[in-house]
Amino acid sequence: MQMRTGFLAAFAVAVARAAVHRVSVGKGRFTYTPDVVRAAKGDVLEFKFVGGVHDAVTGDFAHPCQPAAKKHGAFSSGVFRGKANTNEVFKVTVNSEDPMLVYCSVPGHCAEGMVMVINPSEDTSIDTVRAAARGKSARAPDGVFGGEMGAPSA
Fold it and tell me: Shortest CA distance to 143 belongs to which of 88, 74, 83?
């Protein structure tokens, strides 16, 4: 019983330390707001689709606007028509502190610079990624994966 109580206490502390990073999708024409997030392992990203028709997909820094390999940590929200008063978000748990590219795979959006960077490095700054994405054709991954729809965190 003591071991179980200790485990539950440790789990509660870990969950309490996880930060929630809220990202508005489509608040401006082709934007993620904010477009740079610094997140720790275990933090949660909440994508709220507030305007336009958009998605959030993990991309490949070497090939902007193309989906990253489906691996632990990759995600695809599926396409949503944003509503300012929506009560649902796409939630993703961050499992690495490595840089991660997120782009909109709706045709033309990534090419217009609709990208964001989680945990940018000197080589993966938002300006570098946005410049590399300009004019590129986007490809959507197959299906929704790596996250879940739900109510925003309190």
Answer: 74
Q: What is the pTM of this model?
A: 0.88
pLDDT at position 84, please?
84
CA 8 to chain centre: 29
CA distance 55 to 84: 15
In sequence order, the β-bridge partners of residue 32 are 25
CB 78 within 8 A of CB 140: no
Q: Is the dihedral of CA 143, 41, 84, 25 positive or negative?
A: negative
CA-based angle 36:87:112, to the nearest 5? 35
Which residues is 81 bridged to in the sheet?
Answer: 53
Model confidence at 113: pLDDT above 70: yes
Of 100, 95, 84, nearest to 36 by C-alpha is: 100
The average confidence (pLDDT) of the chain is 91
- Closest by CA to 58, choosing from 95, 89, 30, 27, is 95
Which architecture, in CATH terms, is 19-150? Sandwich (2.60)
Whole-number Å distance between alpha carbons of 66 and 89: 23
